[in-house]
Each structure stands twice: as structure tokens, then as C-alpha cells.
Design goal:
Layout lengths: L1 H21 L3 E4 L30 E5 L1 E3 L8 E3 L4 E6 L14 E3 L14 E5 L9 E4 L2 E3 L5 E2 L7 E2 L17 E5 L12 E5 L2 E3 L6 E7 L4 E5 L2 E14 L9 E5 L2 E6 L6 E6 L4 E5 L2 E5 L2 E5 L6 E4 L2 E3 L4 E5 L2 E3 L1 H7 L21 H8 L19 H9 L22 H8 L16
Parallel strand pairs: 1-2, 2-5, 3-6, 4-7, 5-8, 6-9, 7-12, 8-13, 9-14, 12-15, 13-16, 14-17, 15-17, 16-18, 17-19, 17-20, 18-21, 19-22, 20-23, 21-24, 22-25, 23-26
Antiparallel strand pairs: 10-11, 26-27
Length: 438
């Protein structure tokens, strides 16, 4: 009898500790067919935001094609448990084509009465103490154009602040996708965090931080692969750390991403990739293009960077910032103090981004004081002006461009333009490509 009681007590303890993960399930979301909160394949929910309060650690969320505005049209989904999220499904949840026929678009509505400044998807585990499970974000298109405030319907100039007279809200300022983790389970005795962010598009976001941001903890394994991050301000991808101890540091593998048109936020933040200090980072086979400040900003002295086979072009100030020293691609390996000695085969070259003429002309009409000066004694691949002309398909060394006479700041790029810019690798091997999911 005593033995049975002990066994029962042990079982109850296990249920109390691991109950949430044992109850993990699959959820289904469809804006076209959804109703209620059952979230089954037969009766899906209408929006991710409508079922967030029901999610537990280990849940898997499948989201069908369509435009999702969030609960109360906030455009923001804050999740405080570890989950896997997959977008790009057809309405039957049998096929996925996230950048093609079945786009899952997280957007929003600037005039909502339920304004939130937070990212479209924010997985925030800073106070989570439950069972550890893998985090995956795969196949979403995050487009903040619907959430932003613009000067006019042309969406050529983003306005950060609200307008109380018209009821227009501020442009959200915390990026598009953000994930951050802390200790794993009680007393940090759980498994190390595993985080994968892949096959996503993040576009038209404003702020100082990362448009796509992941902050790991001790021993976290983080994969950021095959994403398109385009037409944002602040940082394109931010590799962060919430851990301040000794090894093992959070480990990032940033591969096959295309990061284009990263604007200065107005506070000297405008880099394709930003690195935190307590992290180990491998950056490989990416396209880092047209940053207003740096292609890679290592101002915090991250000491564990392996930089291999990246294409870097059109950075306005410098290709790489090594704490307080600016340098270009050709000199990084020789001069950088914080790059791994195996860093090699990074190139700079002009590329042509296949966007529409309307977008290209608006982007090109920005006021860049040193655009003309950059012509003198600079190779075509490193010249901001020439890189821009190459993007537009214009002659590299001469020719006048009739720019639109309109104020421009972070002009909205369309989803079609974004996908065109990210569907194929550049120079055959650099950057992201359209996901093929079987």
C-alpha cells in the first residue's frame, strides 16, 4: 500500500512539473475559414491573437494563407511560452508555399483603438519558468506597412509619432519578429534553448532594434536561415544575449539571409547585422546590402565572430565596424581585432535588386549628402552612388537621374517587390531563396 502511495505521489509530481508539455497540441488558424477558439483543423481559429491565451509550452501552430491583423487589429502577437509556428499553408493545411501561392501575412491597422508598439510576433520568455521546448518560426511574412503612420496614402514617408487630431497611432518601434529567452526551467537546470527562425520575410519595420531579433541565453543554439529582411530601419538582424556569465555562450548560425535597405533610424542605427557582446556568431553566405550605417556592426566587441562567404555591398559608412574602427571588406581579415582567424572569402560586388521602378526611384530620391562625393577615386563595387545606380539598372559612371520631388523616409515596399528581391540567390550562392517545402 505504501509503495502504491509513493508511486502515485511520484506520478502527481511529474504531472505538476511537466503537465503543460504533456498537454501540448497542434493548433490551426485560418482568417478565411476560422471561427471560435477550438483551433482544430476542421474548426480553425480566425487569428493567432485569438488563441494566444490558450497556448502552452510545446504547442505547434499552423497558420493558413491570408492577411492577419491581430486580436483587436493590434498587429501584435505576444507569446510567453515556447512554441513552434509554421505559416504558408493552403486552406486545407495540406500544402505549404509561404512566399508563393499561400502567403501568411502578419500585418495590422494603424487606426486601431487597441494600439500596441510591440513586434508582429514577440516570443518573450524572460519570465517563463516552465518546461523547455524548441522554438520555431517558419514561413511568415511580417509587413508593418499597415501598422505604420505615413505622411500620405502614397506611403513614401514614414512618420514615427502619432497624430491625435486624426487618431493616427505612432509607427510601431520594436521590430517585426523578436524572440528572447532567459534561464531554462527552475534554477536553469533544463535543456539549453534551441531556436530556429527560417523562411520568413520581415519588411517595412521602424525602430532602433532588430527587425528580426533573437536574444539567447547560456548555451542556446540559434539558427537564423533563409530569411529576407528588407526595407527596415535600425538593425536588420540582431544577435543578442541575455547571458552575462562565462561559456557556453549563446551560439548563432546566421546563414543564407538577404538583408537589404536598412535605414538610419535617426539615432545612428542602420546596420544590416548588429551583434551583442556575449555571443558566438557564425555569419555565412548572406547578402548584406545598402545599409545606411554599417553592413555589420560589432560596436559591442563580440569576440567570437566567424565571417565566411558573404556578399557585402552599398554600406554608406563602412562594411564592418570593429568596436571603434571602421573598415571595408578588403581589410577586415587583416585589421579586425574580433573576427575569428578562419574568416575569409567575403566579397564586395555590385548587385541589381529586381524591384519595381516606382520603388527604386523613391528609394533613390532620398537625400544622401555624400552620394555624389562617393564617385571620386572609389571602385564601383564600394561606391554608394554606383551601387544605387546598379540597383536601378543605370550607367555606373555617368548619367543624370530624374528623381521624384517628394519627401522620402522608409517608403513602403510591396510584398511583390520584396519577394522578387529575395526569391533567388545573388551571384549564384549568396542570400536567401524562395522556400521549397515538400
Amino acid at each position: 500500500m505504501i509503495k502504491k502511495i509513493k508511486c502515485l505521489s511520484f506520478t502527481i509530481c511529474l504531472l505538476l512539473i511537466f503537465g503543460s508539455s504533456l498537454m501540448a497540441r497542434d493548433w490551426y488558424v485560418s482568417v478565411a475559414k476560422g471561427k471560435g477558439k477550438k483551433g482544430t483543423k476542421v474548426k480553425p481559429a480566425k487569428d493567432l491573437g485569438n488563441i494566444i491565451s490558450k497556448l502552452v509550452g510545446g504547442d505547434v501552430v499552423h497558420i493558413a494563407e491570408g492577411v492577419y491583423l491581430g486580436r483587436g487589429k493590434t498587429g501584435s502577437n505576444i507569446i510567453k511560452v515556447p512554441v513552434k509556428i509554421y505559416g504558408g499553408y493552403d486552406q486545407a493545411f495540406t500544402k505549404r508555399d509561404p512566399w508563393g501561392a499561400h502567403k501568411t501575412i502578419l500585418s495590422g491597422y494603424n487606426l486601431t483603438k487597441n494600439y500596441e508598439m510591440w513586434p508582429a510576433l514577440f516570443i518573450d520568455l524572460m519570465k517563463y519558468g516552465g518546461p523547455n521546448s524548441e522554438i520555431v518560426v517558419d514561413g511568415l511574412i511580417v509587413d508593418h506597412a499597415g501598422r505604420n503612420r505615413y505622411l500620405s496614402e502614397k506611403r513614401s514617408k514614414l512618420i514615427p509619432m502619432a497624430d491625435p487630431k486624426t487618431g493616427k497611432n505612432p509607427s510601431p518601434s520594436e521590430g517585426g519578429i523578436a524572440i528572447r529567452v532567459a534561464k531554462s526551467e527552475k534554477f536553469d537546470r533544463g535543456p539549453r534553448w534551441k531556436i530556429t527562425v527560417t523562411n520568413n520575410i520581415v519588411m517595412n519595420t521602424y525602430g532602433n532594434g532588430g527587425s528580426l531579433s533573437v536574444s539567447g541565453y547560456k548555451g542556446s543554439t540559434i539558427i537564423i536561415d533563409n530569411n529576407l529582411v528588407i526595407q527596415n530601419s535600425g538593425s536588420g538582424i540582431f544577435c543578442g544575449s541575455k547571458y552575462h556569465g562565462k561559456a557556453p555562450l549563446p551560439s548563432f548560425t546566421v546563414t543564407n539571409n538577404t538583408i537589404l535597405f536598412t535605414w538610419d533610424s535617426g539615432m545612428s542605427k542602420g546596420s544590416n547585422i548588429d551583434l551583442d557582446r556575449n555571443a558566438k556568431v557564425t555569419i555565412k553566405n548572406n547578402v548584406l546590402g545598402f545599409a545606411d550605417i554599417y553592413a555589420i556592426n560589432n560596436g559591442y566587441k563580440c569576440k567570437n565572430i566567424l565571417l565566411v562567404k558573404n556578399l557585402i555591398t552599398g554600406a554608406k559608412k563602412a562594411d564592418y565596424m570593429d568596436f571603434d574602427t571602421q573598415m571595408d571588406v578588403e581589410n577586415m581579415v587583416d585589421e579586425a581585432e574580433y573576427l575569428h582567424e578562419d574568416s575569409d572569402e567575403n566579397i564586395t560586388d555590385a548587385i541589381k535588386v529586381p524591384v519595381s521602378k516606382d520603388f527604386a526611384l523613391l528609394y533613390g530620391s532620398r537625400v544622401i549628402v555624400d552620394r555624389a562625393k562617393a564617385e571620386a577615386n572609389v571602385t564601383a563595387s564600394n561606391s554608394n552612388a554606383n551601387a544605387l545606380r546598379g540597383m536601378l539598372g543605370l550607367p555606373l559612371q555617368a548619367g543624370k537621374v530624374k528623381w521624384p520631388k517628394t519627401p522620402v523616409y522608409l517608403n513602403a515596399i510591396s510584398i511583390d517587390d520584396a519577394i522578387a528581391a529575395g526569391s533567388k540567390k545573388y551571384k549564384g550562392s549568396f542570400g536567401c531563396s524562395k522556400p521549397v517545402i515538400k
